[in-house]
Design brief:
The complex is a heterodimer of chains A (546) and B (205). With 546 residues, chain A is mostly helical. Chain A folds into 3 domains: 185 residues, D-Maltodextrin-Binding Protein, domain 2; 96 residues, D-Maltodextrin-Binding Protein, domain 2 (3-Layer(aba) Sandwich); 203 residues, MetI-like fold (Orthogonal Bundle), CATH 1.10.3720.10. In chain A, 57% of the residues lie in helices and 12% in strands. Chain A contains 21 helices and 13 strands. In chain A, the strands form 5 sheets. A 3-stranded parallel β-sheet of chain A has the order 5-1-6. The N and C termini of chain A lie far apart (103 Å). In chain A, 47% of the residues are buried. Chain B is mainly α and 205 residues long. Chain B has a single domain, classed as MetI-like (MetI-like fold, Orthogonal Bundle). In chain B, a hairpin with a 2-residue loop joins strand 1 and strand 2. The longest helix of chain B has 37 residues. The chains are: A mainly alpha (546), B mainly alpha (205). At the A-B interface, helix 15, helix 16, helix 20 and helix 21 of A face helix 3, helix 7 and helix 8 of B.
């Protein structure tokens, strides 16, 4: 069997080697032409970031990550900086192929494209996903040199292994990741972190039991036996191809396209990954793919049919998004106020925003009604003639009043999950009931205490109505409290405004304006309820006086 | 369920200490800002009007929403007196402090007016009311679970997540609810007894 495999490999090598030889010759011809151009036109006349420019300079400026384990790590400062990682190896190999020195520039996800556009670097190899949106800004090299998969990693003791099973759970996510939309659509709550390293720290410190990021990022953590013993990959969400990129219009890109195809075929990318604990499945697949002669067209050009497509992470804009942009610009230019309104700019964000407002309003109204209803229910037991009913009601209200609302919500959620599957309306009903129980028990106690005072001074059993009127102020304060605490329902996945704006933040990255709006919305809502309660109180007092 | 209690209880009690710390820090901040506001509320209109607006705003702001607002606007790395402070912890302390400021300003004003009127009994009730506020803040501090602060409810939720049987999860929750119920009802009974004793001792003969 082994001999048969070896024979097949030899046969394949025989079949493919002419194509590879052609490809290598074509790449060499491109280099020779660039050198000739530099000689004939002079180094001053060729653009710095062109192939000829790089050859003239004798070095290539490569933007790389400085803090991404196994891909681009920088230790030390200045000239003493020691770099390591898969992408560093690739950059060094490219420089060696060009016969120039690799000069590294540390870039971040926030500035890597700007560095290319402003031509501060000739090439970026910095964990950059190839998307249609980025295609408009820089020139991506294809075939892609790597591919990451967004995964959810979690505690091994947690049994959830699908998006549906994640419903109602909290997943810690990095800020500005479009894949959070997949989680949100399945009723997952998000806890957002600024940096990837914070996610790993949060997992280790048990702040999070589930976290989402690229598998490439988690590879370093899984190389640690202690981490691997505690955590595992729960599910994969989506794949993102990673591309090297050059400034737009640079002829270096065409050379690198051919070189990438050739290196995949030769297993050079796989070789560069040696020594780093990163996923190699994509590299192995690409090696098989680009070993096929059909994938290399004439002149070392990769055949379009073999190339991976960029991801489309575009969110459809709202029809009034241009007006929102103009409004933001007007505020900035006229009043000097810089604000962004991401919730109004894309369809998905706007729908979430509207849903959040509607759910918040329903939640508040429902919480007020349930608080009032349950207060009356408990109060009728607390003021009942049979002592057993009063004692039982007092014990129940005592426990409910002293249980943290968060705990009550999760308790209700857990009990309900034995009866019905999770859905937003189910979460809403649970929240309404639990907020009602929490505040209603306190309001009922106030009624009960008033009734007890009346009993001590009255020869007959006082009516419940009188106790309710006597405790009206406390009842109203607990109705206000129910409104104030309604946002806590977000913890069991009710898609009210806090939850929806958190989801919007997770893929838009804008936070200050979003959360300021949230605070204003809820404060106004509470103020409205307070005003209504005061009006009601006035009506009751006038009636009592009459 | 019983078998997890020996390992769960120490973690739970450590979490409860975090709740008490949050409540204490919030109450101290509440006193520092609430008492001057109470004095302002009782002063002339020039001071009382802005102080009243501020207290009204703090009273209307939902603590849970304030916490998320602060979490998202505060810097990620905060050092106080050379110590690194977790943003989530600071956000929950400040959010609870907003409630405490309004509560202390309101109750402080009542106490101040009672003092001016010579009604010592009502004025002294400020102290048991403060104790009640401390325990309300302790309960409210459980919202810190939403931002990953390892307080008592957070560790309970984490423990429940790892229990395979739903019945065990429900029993764990019931245990924690009864624990809170028993402890806080005892504390509130003591507060009420102290209130009654104060009123009895200071009531005019």
């Amino acid at each position: 069997m082994r001999h048969l495999l070896a024979a097949l490999l030899l046969l394949l090598a025989g079949l493919t080697s002419p194509a590879r030889a052609d490809s290598a010759a074509a790449l060499q011809a491109m280099l020779d032409q660039a050198r000739a151009r530099a000689t004939t036109q002079g180094c001053e006349a060729v653009p710095r970031d062109s192939l000829a420019g790089v050859l003239c300079n004798g070095h290539i400026r490569v933007g790389v990550r400085g803090n991404y384990p196994n891909f681009g790590i920088a230790d030390g400062l200045g000239a003493d900086t020691r770099r390591s990682g898969f992408e560093i190896e690739v950059a060094r190999a490219i420089a060696a192929r060009l016969g120039v020195e690799a000069r590294f520039v540390t870039v971040t996800p926030a500035n890597r494209i700007a560095n290319l556009v402003e031509r501060r670097v000739d090439l970026v190899i910095a964990t950059m996903g190839h998307t249609l949106q980025r295609d408009e800004q820089v020139r991506f090299i294809r075939p892609h040199y790597y591919q990451s998969t967004t995964v959810v990693v979690g505690d091994r003791r947690i049994t959830a292994r699908s998006l549906d099973q994640m419903a109602g759970r909290t997943v810690c996510v990095p800020l500005g990741n479009a894949d959070t939309l997949h989680l949100v659509q399945h009723g997952v709550r998000l806890l957002i972190f600024d940096s990837p390293q914070q996610l790993v720290d949060a997992l280790k410190r048990e702040i999070c039991s589930l976290a989402m990021h690229d598998d490439s990022f988690f590879s370093n953590s899984f190389a640690d036996p202690a981490f691997a013993a505690r955590f595992e990959q729960k599910l994969a969400i989506s794949a993102l191809p990673w591309g090297m990129a050059t400034p737009p219009g640079s002829d270096l890109a065409a050379f690198l396209d051919g070189l990438s195809a050739q290196w995949h075929a030769e297993g050079r990318f796989l070789q560069a990954a040696t020594g780093f604990p990163i996923a190699r499945g994509f590299l192995e697949d690409q090696r098989s793919l680009w070993s096929s002669p059909a994938c290399i067209a004439a002149g070392a050009t990769p055949a379009p049919g073999c190339l991976g497509e960029p991801s489309d992470t575009t969110l459809p804009p709202t029809r009034f998004a241009p007006d929102v942009d103009r409004f933001e610009a007007w505020l900035r230019d006229t009043l000097g106020i810089s604000i962004t309104l991401p919730m109004l700019k894309t369809e998905v964000a706007f729908e979430a925003f509207l849903r959040g407002i509607i759910f918040s309003l329903v939640l508040v109204v429902g919480s007020i009604i349930s608080t009032l209803g349950l207060a009356m229910l408990f109060a009728s037991a607390l003021c009942a003639r049979p002592a057993a009913a009063r004692i039982a009601a007092r014990m129940a209200t005592g426990v409910l009043q002293c249980s943290p609302l968060v705990l009550l919500l999760f308790f209700g959620y857990m009990v309900a999950s034995t009866l019905v599957p999770y859905s937003a309306p189910v979460a809403l009903v649970i929240a309404v009931v639990m907020i009602g129980l929490y505040n209603g028990s306190s309001a009922a106690q106030a009624i009960g205490e008033y009734h007890a005072t009346q009993r001590s001074t009255s020869a007959t059993w006082p009516p419940l109505r009188g106790a309710i009127q006597g405790a009206a102020v406390q009842i109203m304060s607990f109705l206000v409290n129910a409104t104030k605490s309604s946002a806590v329902a977000s913890m069991v996945g009710v898609p009210e405004l806090l939850n929806e704006l958190t989801d919007i933040t997770s893929f838009t990255s804008e936070r200050i304006m979003t959360y300021s709006f949230l605070l204003v919305f809820y404060t106004l809502l509470v103020s409205l309820v307070v005003t209504l309660m005061r009006s009601l109180q006035g009506v009751f007092e006038r009636r009592a006086a009459a | 369920m019983i078998e997890i209690l020996p390992s769960f209880l120490p973690v739970f009690l450590a979490g409860l200490v975090v709740n008490l710390e949050i409540a204490f820090a919030s109450l101290v901040l509440g006193l520092l800002l609430g008492l001057p506001l109470a004095v302002s509320l009782g002063a002339g209109r020039a001071l009382a009007a802005p102080a009243g607006s501020l207290v009204g705003l703090l009273r209307a702001a939902p603590t849970f929403v304030v916490m998320f607002f602060l979490l998202n606007i505060l810097p990620r790395e905060i050092q106080i007196a050379g110590h690194d402070i977790q943003t989530g912890l600071l956000a929950v302390i400040l959010a609870n402090a907003a409630y405490a400021v309004a509560y202390i300003a309101d109750n402080g004003l009542v106490a101040l007016r009672a003092l001016r009127a010579g009604n010592i009994a009502t004025a002294v009730l400020f102290l048991p009311n403060l104790t009640r506020a401390f325990f309300v803040l302790t309960l409210a501090s459980s919202m810190a679970a939403a931002v990953g602060t390892p307080e008592a409810i957070f560790v309970t939720l984490r423990q429940a997540e790892r229990l395979p049987a739903l019945s065990d999860q429900i029993m764990l929750f019931a245990f924690v609810m009864l624990f809170f119920g028993a402890v806080l009802q005892t504390v509130f009974a003591i507060i009420n007894a102290v209130r009654a004793a104060i009123l009895h001792r200071l009531a005019p003969a």
